[in-house]
Design a protein that fits this description.
heterodimer; A: alpha/beta; Heat Shock Protein 90; 7 strands; 15% strand; elongated; B: 45 residues; mainly beta; 4-stranded antiparallel beta sheet; 0% helix; 53% strand
Chain lengths: 301, 45
């Protein structure tokens, strides 16, 4: 199982998400490993192979074919391994009606080559977004407005990934200062990059609220959820550094199969206590925190 | 990717294998057999 799953990931960039089998396969150890890999398990009743859709009776068909070949060729039983290999080869290269008269081999390799292309597209998108963000200066942000920048980010993300992006903005968010606004856009960008790379989501909602007490940014998707393993890459650590520089906190809500929500809280006073006094505290604080943010960005590379 | 796993136990082959596990991709029906000895070695093809 481990060999097959890792081969699919490394060679074809395809992630196994669901394993269906009868109960005997799912020992405690296998279940633990599958859980760690964030792979769902689904039970099928023993000896009812027709529960398995296109995979129906595949093992049984290959075994029957191998047996017929062996008997037809009058070969001894202990050569069954060679017969099974040959039968599987023929099975994979035989056109099937339910595949529009294509072979399983053809359908599988067409699909995986498309996915490999998709991975490249996503990586290019992330590079484009990084370039976009790096170009996002506080001056430009102040000119265009925070709301407009977040809409642009969401539109670009949706156009490139096909994931439907919805933006929900509180009416006062343009009162947030340009320095903090730039960091919020960067945080949203990191969160969206994670969605594109890992979530297999179909929808994502970006919401930004400003209250008297706090600024709250949330990026929630309906994807596979995060595996309970240490985060790889620099996205989340970068995000955390940016938030901490403003005295805020990050919460990640994720359950396997129900999507992920990244929530960021930043004290309103850091963003200028915008509802009560939009400029004074932001201007005084941004000067001080600008140094801290620059340091955090330098560390993040 | 969704896969279906099933297996069959057979009499010992000339090279010691006793079980074949089939990993089938649900979308395409592509079957990959893995062969197993007595709880030791696993061989693909």
């Amino acid at each position: 199982m481990k060999d097959y799953v890792e081969r699919m990931e490394k060679r074809y960039q395809v992630k196994v998400k669901i394993v269906r089998s009868d109960d005997e396969l799912f020992t405690k150890r296998t279940r633990a490993w599958l859980r760690k890999k964030a792979i769902d398990t689904e039970l099928s009743a023993p000896r009812t192979q027709d529960q398995n859709g296109l995979a129906e009776r595949s093992g049984g068909v290959v075994i029957a074919k191998a047996r017929a070949m062996r008997i037809g060729a009058n070969l001894p039983h202990d050569l069954w391994k060679e017969m099974v290999n040959t039968a599987a080869y023929l099975h994979n290269r035989t056109p099937r009606e339910n595949l529009d008269w294509k072979t399983p081999y053809e359908v599988f390799y067409t699909h995986t080559s498309k996915l490999s292309g998709l991975t490249e597209t996503i990586n290019m998108l992330i590079d484009d977004l990084r370039a976009y963000i790096n170009d996002l200066t506080p001056t430009r942000l102040a000119k265009r407005g925070l709301g407009s920048e977040i809409f642009s980010l969401a539109n670009e993300f949706q156009a490139s990934t096909g994931v439907v992006a919805t933006v929900k903005l509180h009416e006062h968010i343009d009162e947030i200062g340009a320095d903090l606004g730039r960091d919020l856009v960067q945080i949203a960008h990191e969160a969206l990059a994670n969605v594109a790379k890992h979530a297999s989501a179909s929808r994502v909602v970006i919401s930004l609220r400003l209250t008297a007490q706090s600024i709250r940014l949330e990026v929630a998707d309906d994807g596979t959820g995060m595996a309970p393993s240490p985060a790889r890459g620099r996205g989340l650590p970068n995000m955390l550094k940016r938030v901490q520089a403003w005295g805020g906190k990050v919460e990640i809500g994720s359950a396997h199969g129900t999507g992920t929500a990244i929530r960021v809280w930043i004290p309103a006073r850091a963003g200028g206590s915008a509802r009560s006094d939009p400029t004074e505290s932001l201007l005084s604080r941004s000067t001080v925190l600008g140094v801290a943010v620059s340091a955090a960005l330098a560390i993040a590379g | 990717m969704e896969i279906h796993v099933d297996w069959t136990d057979l009499e010992e082959a000339y090279d010691g294998y006793v079980r074949v596990m089939f990993f089938t991709d649900a979308a395409s029906g592509l079957v990959t057999p893995y062969f197993m000895e007595l709880k030791k070695k696993i061989s693909r093809r």
